[in-house]
Amino acid sequence: MSDRSLLSIDDLDVAGIREIVELSDAFEEVLRRPIPKVPALRGRTVANVFFEDSTRTRLSFEIAAKRLSADTVNFTASGSSLSKGESLFDTIRTLHAMGVDAFVVRHRAPGAARRVDGWVDTPVINAGDGAHEHPTQALLDLVTVHRRRGDVEGLRCVMVGDIEHSRVARSTIGAFTMMGMHVSVAAPATLLPTGIDDWPVDVVEDLDTALEKADVVYMLRMQKERIARDPVLPSLREYVARYGLTAERARRLPPEVVLMHPGPMNRGVEIAPEATEHPGAAIEEQVRNGVTVRMAVLYLALGGMP
Ligand code: CP
């Protein structure tokens, strides 16, 4: 167990989040250099241990580690000795025995990163555990709003879609509200979690009314792979009509609205292809900011120069 691990957005307080935002801004300058690299983590080894698929998170952690001159090793479930029955515990202890300095862990089971943290004395960063948490996504979302709008306090975010299955919703709502933003959620009742009344959000019935007052519109991915196990929608067409960011809804949004999506997108379901061309769309900025945020998180986890 390490006190430098990042398992949940609640591991951070306002000062901790501000430190990551400021460090992320400093690393943005590094990325603009002709050789976008600093020797901060030279000699350290970061293991990206992904038991569930990923494009953005896995690659941006790898790029972030390389920009800080760390060595990286990448473990994915496919092609590993998991197929021979090796357990999560033995897999982690095997990598630990090889001299890894930090673990970045994604797993489909809620709480998996915390379990890993209990088995090793090196920092563990949660890169997404089931429908539970995705703290570095929350941080890159916050950095994206901050870079677009400056001070985030008092901004109004409308988050739309599959809240129930979304680790992004849990972590990003935590980060946004901790920093003084107001969050409303819009979703069919079957895609709202039990206990939503205890979350620091308003539940809105009518998306179009909510969009009129929004500074930030956050569309969530319809998690078809999780929903396939538990059908919750009578009709996808009806869902798109009531909760999708259609081309028509996007046309009504002012240009200064920050339009976000964590990716991967289901174009034509939660977001129309035309909506991604809105001047406020920050979806690729979120991806870019993921690199500097993960540089900041790795730098703080590993304490800079050895
Ligand atoms: N946003 C996000 O976590 O994307 P990936 O699943 O591609 O990492």
Bound small-molecule species = phosphoric acid mono(formamide)ester
Strand order of the largest sheet: 7-6-5-8-9
Q: Number of domains in the coordinates?
A: 2
Number of DSSP-assigned strands = 9
Beta-strand content bin: 5-15%
How confident is the prediction overall: mean pLDDT?
95
**Share in helix:** 25-40%
> From the helix content, strand content and strand pairing, which structural class follows?
alpha/beta
The CATH topology assignment of the largest domain is: Rossmann fold
Q: Indicate the radius of gyration in whole angstroms.
A: 19 Å
The geometry reads as globular
Strand count, sense and barrel status of the largest sheet are:
5 strands, parallel
Output the helix-strand order. Answer: HEHEHEHEHEHEEHEHHHEH
What do these coordinates show?
The chain has eleven helices and nine strands. The relative contact order is 0.17. The strands form two sheets. A five-stranded parallel β-sheet has the order 7-6-5-8-9. The protein has a four-stranded parallel β-sheet with strand order 2-1-3-4, with helices on both faces. By secondary structure, it is an alpha/beta fold. α2 crosses α11 and α5 packs across α11. It has two domains: 140 residues, Rossmann fold; 149 residues, Rossmann fold (3-Layer(aba) Sandwich), CATH 3.40.50. The model has no long low-confidence stretch (mean pLDDT 95).
